[in-house]
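Summary for the steering committee. One of the milestones for this cycle was to obtain a three-dimensional model of the protein with 8-OXO-2'-deoxyguanosine-5'-triphosphate bound, which we needed before selecting residues for the alanine scan. The sequence and ligand used are listed below.
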Amino acid sequence: MTTIKQIVGGALVDALENPTKLLAARRTAPPEFAGMWEFPGGKVEAGEAAEAGLHRELAEELGVSVTLGAELVGPTSAGWPLTAGAAMRVWLAQVTDGTPAPLEDHDALQWVVLSGPEIRTLPWIPADLPIVEALIAFTGH
Ligand SMILES: Nc1nc2c([nH]c(=O)n2[C@H]2C[C@H](O)[C@@H](COP(=O)(O)OP(=O)(O)OP(=O)(O)O)O2)c(=O)[nH]1
């Protein structure tokens, strides 16, 4: 049996009801991803539920507490394929406490308008592009 590395990501939006903006985060490492934009998040730890892992990662990386909204359901049970060995589940999320700051793993954050052209021209990690499209569609933009 092959084990897929489970990654979780947060699509932080300005409001779960009627989202208009997404928080994109620019990675600092590893070199092949440095400078690319992504959904903040990371690896789920052994014995940890996916949602709990996402709350933990968002607190560590951005210093925020969030309420999770709907999952942006991907094509596999592990979510959206990233590489042959890793996949990411992604939830919409809204900040309930704190102001997002690039504390760990990122050197910039930006709120991008879901209905504007810029969301598609940001240099996302390539594997994230279908997720970005799904988010735009899911939020009705
Ligand atoms: N967090 C995140 N990782 C992504 C995205 N797209 C994508 O291909 N990845 C890849 C990059 C990494 O190889 C892997 C996530 O690992 P990570 O480095 O963020 O996880 P982590 O913070 O738990 O890592 P670590 O420090 O424990 O090694 O998934 C994305 O949108 N968000």
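Key point for the committee: The chain has one domain: 5-138.
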